[in-house]
Amino acid sequence: MEERLQKFLAEAGVASRRKAEELIAAGKIKVNGKVVTELGTKVDPKKDEVLYLDKEVSKKEVDLVYIMLHKPEGYVTTAKEQFGRPGVMDLVSQIEARIFPVGRLDYDTSGLLLLTNDGELTYKLTHPKHDVDKTYIAKLYGTPDDMDLQKFRRGVFIDGRQTKPAKMQILERGERQSTVEIVIHEGRNRQVRKMCEAIKHPVAQLKRVATGELKLGDLPKGKYRHLTPKEVKYLKSL
């Protein structure tokens, strides 16, 4: 059965589907000996030979790996970083499989980050239409009032467009800072920080504690663990 080339590459663990599209467009994929750059190209895994960097790609050889990492502050989630800052892949170097992050966490944000070589799952979890909840604990400057909480519930304007409705719950009030729980459904660039700036309560510290019902728990900062079969099944059901 034929399937789109980028979907095949993602399921084979080469890269996420979006990254696979970039590889195709850059002319780094060959099908039956010919460079392919059309994103609509379809392949039959049983008949066609697919090469990435002149090495054959096969879904049969891939053992799918699912990792939860407690990302510390001061690490980037991109594969390559022009400023030489440490990356999350350094923290999972013991994993032999070629895994990649599911979405991103900012350099100065800590918390739950999933990594896998299941490109199809990555695509589904990061696609805007799936609305997977992401829960954060944030320390803010000042304390939001009821009007600020209403703004979050309606969605606030950042980068020229309105966010989807979000939730904010105040957990602790202090003289200069407050601690809140924030739940969003999108993954826009630095979204939580920008939303908090929009209501005049900038973020002092930010940590992602859950993706959907999958919780970080007491996993130590900088450490990782493999997801249980039940957790993987849950993510695939989203």
From TrEMBL:
PANTHER family: PSEUDOURIDINE SYNTHASE FAMILY PROTEIN-RELATED, RNA-BINDING S4 DOMAIN-CONTAINING PROTEIN. It comes from Anaerotignum neopropionicum. It holds the Pfam family S4. This is Pseudouridine synthase. Belongs to the pseudouridine synthase RsuA family. One of its GO terms (biological process) is enzyme-directed rRNA pseudouridine synthesis. One of its GO terms (cellular component) is cytosol. One of its GO terms (molecular function) is RNA binding. It comes from the Bacteria. Its EC number is 5.4.99.-. Keywords: Isomerase, RNA-binding. It is an enzyme of class 5 (isomerase). InterPro entries: PsdUridine_s_RsuA/RluB/E/F_cat, PsdUridine_synth_cat_dom_sf, PsdUridine_synth_RsuA/RluA, PsdUridine_synth_RsuA/RluB/E/F, PsdUridine_synth_RsuA/RluB_CS, RsuA_PseudoU_synthase, S4_RNA-bd, S4_RNA-bd_sf. Residues 3-67 form the RNA-binding S4 domain.
